[in-house]
Amino acid sequence: MDISIKDLDDLKYAKSLLENPGLAAKITNSLGTPIEKGFDFLPKSWHKIVSSSSQKALEVAANSAILTMKKSAKPDAANTLHKIMVAGSGAAGGFLGLLALPVELPVSTAIMMRSIADIARSESQSISDPQIKIACIEVFALGGPGKDDDAVETGYFAIRSGLAKSVTDAAQHIAGKGLSGKSSPALIKLISQISSRFGIQVSEKMAAQAIPVIGAVGGAVINTLFIDHFQAMARGHFIVLRLEKKYGFDVIKQAYAVL
After folding, report:
1. Distance from C-alpha of 238 to C-alpha of 249, rounded to nearest angstrom
2. Rounded CA gap, 82 and 89, in Å?
3. What is the secondary structure of 223-243 as a DSSP string?
4. In degrees rounded to 5, what are phi and psi of residue 29?
């Protein structure tokens, strides 16, 4: 099936977003200081803090920000508003220090989840569709290529392939049973898989905020970069899903690979 010129341009744009430099590079370029220096200032238990905080943040965001979200009539994504809200959360966290992460991260992640859903809706996706709700959560596993991600198969589509079964199972549970009490085992499994990748981004955010000269103002800047990164991932992700719906998964995956 031939892809129209406009849709091919959209796919090129999506790939430029999804395969761009990761969050660490964006923070380093903005602050002018390698975030690796920040790891030296982190407490000894920072791995445990990041792991538990990332898991909790995704669970809160999934249950409160996405699964309860209704379709809105507004077609445009309110990216700027969500950035302002997350910047405020980051500023507060900066004042309170690294120990505020378990409180600040769920708040900022829930806001980002709302922003991701906003972007999904602006790409003609139905937020009432369980598959799209789960796709919103999936965005937090996307982070751009790492040092070893030289091929497309180790990037965007490889991540989706690794999550595919958990994504399907979680969406089927929500479609069949909705939400009742605690999250389903399928959703918990998916969130656990995603949190391991999301935790990498959280670690980079935490390291940047640990640099002594950053402070509360830096916390706002870092959180703005944090949400900007995932807004870009969301835009690319939902452009690809929109085109897959039109042309089919295999056609778009092949076109993506040869761009």
Report:
1. 13
2. 11
3. HHHHHHHHHHHHHHHHHHHHH
4. -65, -35
SS3 152: helix
Q: Which tokens belong to 141?
A: 């596993």
Report the number of distinct structural domains present in the chain.
1
- Closest to 121 in 3D by CA, of 108, 133, 139, 137: 133
Domain holding 170, by residue range, is: 5-258
Among residues 148, 183, 143, 146, the alpha carbon closest in space to that of 166 is found at 183
40-77 confidence digits (pLDDT tens):
888 888 888 899 999 999 988 887 766 666 665 456 77
Those residues with Cβ within 8 angstroms of residue 214's Cβ, 6 or more apart along the chain or in another chain: 31, 94, 208, 222
Which residues contact residue 99 at a Cβ distance below 8 angstroms, ignoring those fewer than 6 apart?
none
Task: Specify whether the CB–CB gap between 175 and 130 falls below 8 A.
Answer: yes
Structure tokens at 116: 């991701």
CB atoms under 10 Å from CB of 202, counted, come to 22
Q: Specify the pLDDT at position 214.
A: 66
What tokens appear for 226 in the block? Answer: 């944090």
Distance CA 39, CA 126 (A): 40
